[in-house]
Amino acid sequence: MLEYLTVGLLLQLVINGILFGAMYGLAAIGLSLIFGTMRIVFLAQGAVIVLMAYLCYWLFTLFHIDPYVSTPLLGIIALLLGAGLYQVLFRRAVRMEDKNISLLIAVGLMFLLENFMAVAWTPDPRSISTSYTSSSISIGTLDISFTRLLGFAMAMLATGAVTLFLKRTFVGKAVRAASEDIEAARLVGVNPHWVNTMAFAIGIGLSGIAGIAVSTTYPFDPYFGFVFSLKAMIALALGGLGSVSGALLGGIILGLLESLAAFFISGGWADAIGYAVFLLVLLFRPEGLFVRSIKKA
Amino acid sequence: MENHLLEIRDLAVAYGGVQALWGVSAHVDEGSIVSLVGANGAGKTTLLKTIAGLNRPKAGGVFFAGKKLSGMSPEGVVNEGISLVPEGRRLFARLTVKENLELGAYASRARPTYKESLERAYTLFPILKTRRTQVAGSLSGGEQQMLAIARSMMSNPSILMLDEPSLGLSPLVVKVMFELIENLNRTGVTILLVEQNIYQALKISQHAYVMKTGKIALEGSGEQLLADPDVQNAYLGSLE
Question: Chain B interface residues facing chain A, Cβ-Cβ under 8 Å?
Fold first, then answer.
């Protein structure tokens, strides 16, 4: 296989890996926010992303709304869905402080969504094809898919927006404080349900963006989400908890690894290598690759 | 009812099936420094946490200026004007010094006076101004304790509760800390103090309670308790 390898091909693999990795990164940021504030491993994140992809698909096939036009609408739907999921499903469980209950609710929600989608849209893979789906931008010998590039751009924009929110706004700072120490945050007056609602809304809001990016670039089916959640968790382990840019970077590294492994070893190995890296990171650098450890006060 | 700023009446608290407080009654007068002393596990921290709304009492109540606090959430209590500097400081280690202070003013009562409170914090602790862009986790132990106190003061509390503020600090810094507590008190803040450093705590207190296995064993003025032979034997032995 190596005889086919050229610099151009290698670059192509790297770019594809980065572009797809950004999708993992988006999902990982959502997981990170939700885990950070509530210590919930939100395994249904992938299923919600697929649900958003289906909604985007629906708007496109039934109403002929271009996926990128429906982005703001889906973003808002996802934000509201996130807030609703917290209030209806997780609020009580978080108050009970039993993490197992929250995890079980997340798993239950995932199966519910998967089966709902299988009934609503059949288990056949779907994809959105627009006039520009197969167009690409050529730079020298490189071909960069237009939709993947846009998906990547949306991921970067969304990450930037979340970072600004967390760093610059009062509520964002409260979310970060609550992720570090919810009890200390309550002692200064932070209402835990409010920050949890925010974290859930934004985490799921990002899955709206990810859903659009996925639906415009890859075929998807109702069961695609679980693997996506797992990949997001790997990205999170790579990036380290509590860092938005770390989660994005973790996703990109995972995408790169998979892309390169699929070429140099074989497609089947890509996933195995992803999980192996997951275990290695957890074993040897559980705080993540990019988090400088700060001694706890 | 007498006019105490804070009144704790027959308070009983249990967690996880273990009772930690048994009918504790105590009070704090406006403008005073009151200490709670006693061995580890006597229930001092539990009492502060219950006042702060982190524990729910199973009997009895906490009243602040005549208003019932017990049953309120911690967010509610801090908004009433009682702020706890928790044991171990509990700073937001990955946030900057300034962000920690900003969050100290999260309660709605504190927002209108945020600018003045920040000014006051920087005047009280000039070092925090110098370090305002550093993350809190990078401060020294003494600086962290100062930040923890400054953060609590950002909510403009009438009563500041401090849980072991001298823990883990060098003797020199401990001295500074006690001076600081007295200074805060002079500006009109009522202080409720839990301390292992019993001698120092009693010295600055107008009134103090000795707690033992979840009950008040003894109470009196700081001077009285310092002179009490039982207190001397049990807690101040090393000083003789």
Answer: 52-54, 73-75, 78-79, 83-84, 86, 88-95, 99, 102-108, 110, 135-139, 144, 151-152, 154-155
Give the whole-angstrom CA distance, residue A42 versus residue A31: 6
- Is pLDDT of B26 > 80? yes
- Report the SS3 class of residue B112: helix
At which residue do the structure tokens 């859903």 appear? A211
- Give the three-state DSSP class for A78: helix
Q: Is the CB of residue A17 less than 8 Å away from at least one CB of chain B? A: no
Chain A residues in contact with B167 (beta carbon < 8 A): none
What pTM was computed for the model? 0.90
A242–B104 CB contact, under 8 Å: no
Residue-wise burial string across A148-169, b where 16 or more C-beta atoms lie within 10 A, e elsewhere: bebbbebbeebbeebbebbeee
Would you place residue A297 in the very low, low, confident or very high pLDDT band (cuts 50, 70, 90)?
very low
**Per-residue pLDDT tens over the stretch A219-270:** 999 999 999 999 999 999 888 877 888 999 999 999 999 999 888 888 778 8
CATH level 3 topology of B1-81+157-240: Rossmann fold (3.40.50)
CA angle in degrees (0–180, nearest 5) for B202-B205-B211: 60
- Residue to mutate among A187, A290, A291, A295, with most B CBs inside 10 A, is A187
Mean pLDDT score of chain A, rounded to an integer? 89
For chain A, domains (ranges, CATH) are 2-284 (1.10.3470)
Angle, alpha carbons A95-A99-A100 (nearest 5°): 125
Pinpoint the residues of chain B covered by CATH 3.40.50.300.
Answer: 1-81+157-240
Which residue's structure tokens are 């120490």?
A: A181
Distance between CA atoms of residues A174 and A71, nearest Å: 28
Contact yes or no for B54 and A187 at CB 8 A: yes
Q: Do A186 and B73 touch (CB under 8 A)?
A: yes
For A66-100, write each residue's pLDDT tens digit.
999 999 999 999 999 999 999 999 998 887 767 78
A216, two tokens: 């415009």
Measured in degrees and rounded to the nearest 5, phi and psi for residue B128 equal -70, -30
Q: How far apart are CA B119 and CA A276, in angstroms?
A: 52
A 228-287 residues with CB < 8 A to B:
242
Secondary element (H or E) of residue A8: helix A7-38
Tokens 């100290």 correspond to B104
Q: What ipTM was assigned to the predicted interfaces of this complex?
A: 0.94
